[in-house]
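Standup notes
- HV: blocked on the assembly model, inputs below
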Amino acid sequence: MSYLITGGAGYIGAHVVRALRRAGETVVVLDDLTSGVAARIPEDVPLVVGSTLDRAVLDGVLAEHGVTDVVHLAAKKQVGESVEMPLLYYRENVHGLQTLLEAMAAGGVGRLVFSSSAAVYGMPDVELVTEETPCTPINPYGETKLVGEWMARAVGRAHGISTACLRYFNVAGTAAPELADTGVFNIVPMVFERLTAGEAPRIFGDDYDTPDGTCIRDYIHVADLADAHVAAARKLAEPGPVRDLTLNIGRGEGVSVREMIDLITEITGHRGVVAEVTPRRAGDPARVVAAADRISTELGWKARHDVRDMITSAWAGWRHHRPQD
Amino acid sequence: MSYLITGGAGYIGAHVVRALRRAGETVVVLDDLTSGVAARIPEDVPLVVGSTLDRAVLDGVLAEHGVTDVVHLAAKKQVGESVEMPLLYYRENVHGLQTLLEAMAAGGVGRLVFSSSAAVYGMPDVELVTEETPCTPINPYGETKLVGEWMARAVGRAHGISTACLRYFNVAGTAAPELADTGVFNIVPMVFERLTAGEAPRIFGDDYDTPDGTCIRDYIHVADLADAHVAAARKLAEPGPVRDLTLNIGRGEGVSVREMIDLITEITGHRGVVAEVTPRRAGDPARVVAAADRISTELGWKARHDVRDMITSAWAGWRHHRPQD
């Protein structure tokens, strides 16, 4: 077996590369390095710099590396940017996957793990989001992920490609400081940035219908997430009929924004800093927590790291990348 | 104002061209003629033979004809084929629209009427389907139509393009024999084909939970449908903010398959022919009938033709195209 990891130089992609290598697999990375970082890839892993929009590059990689399995993570992933630049998101996320699926069908590559998102659910009004909760995305980012699932399933059925669509909840932490998320689009790095600048962390609304009034999310350590990709890929490779898995990847536990900020200030040595409450952001649901039973039943996977692990490792990564802070 | 009609050589497209011309508008057609027929276009209407996947062709048409409004009908539309060939459907229907929207945004074209479908609703379990009924398409054709709506709305919002997504229910009939549907994918021509071959029309299941056990649909005359496009385009052109309309186009009246077959056998002079009942087809909902209030309120449009008009005109079209029958 030989794995192609698209977007393998990204934060999550690099963790998937690492997890597959630890599991003894052969890996090749395709990444256009617009947001990925080549240094995240081990030196003995081939890195092809190119786009999933480029059919010739895809055909070349699949053939030259004898690819049998694809893990497709290459995508744009900023919700706000997707509202401003929907054409970019549809092109990169939808047409990129279309081109990949065309290349896989033509090349006889029979297994695909697809990076989806809890954003497909939109504003779920349930205690726990199951894989059967209706999908009603509310921004182009979430739309492109749901379309990607539809395409993957339909093309899989028509062309005999087994698929696993993994719906990530809120990813945080790092398995190694050098692999840390260097963006500041998620709560953990956003709070790090405020704290190290001497500013109060922000809470976007504390009048939600939740116990402490702040939004509740389900955080998952990126190392656990990466292991789920390995488990999903292994499942698809088992003998049997063409598979079509759709799986939440979360811990099944809700943590509020205020609880996160309290933990982050404690772990980073900023205990006592008081968060500033600002108005709600548009499109933030009060509560998004995964029902995480299906993945456990289907793959035998369970999260091993708690929120404290995520913050502690992310903080080590932050200090690695920004030693001046 | 100058209208580009993509897919204008198709059955519905040619009716839209005709309706816009009768309303005094200037029209240019883009059609790749894979299923469209050039003879359906009036001789004094420019026909550009090309695909909406071809950005250079689009840029040329928009600039040369000073296009201000686009009615986008070019698409693949066979449900069964979409299951067999999802990559074709995603490419033509989704990437075709993506390319068109990119060209419109670049060329500053500010209005789009998009051909959507009741297929976006999937298997609705309601008496009347409103525009707020959840969209859960069950095949790639319906998926590509829902994605098209999402793209059109998101790109419209980001780039100042007013959009009208028209969800067609079951289209039948013709405004002129030479413009008739020449395919046999819908019930009216399917029954014509059986009757003229001396075979019994088929009913796919008579054990549905409906008064006569056969499926109920909402039929709309293609001439009424075409007029709705004119009304939608006119609405988008009114002064005011960027608009974002989503409208069912149906009559709001359910007709069962058995009622349709009875009417068709009567109108075509085959009264007394008994239909043959075969098992259900997968993916056929028992009842799909539009709530048609919104389009009437928003556009002042109302259907003028009943089912008898649809069958009578379609039969004249059938005899025109197959005089040997």
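- HV (later): unblocked. The first helix of chain B runs from residue 11 to 22. The first strand of chain B starts at residue 2 and ends at 6.
- Next: hand off to the docking folks.
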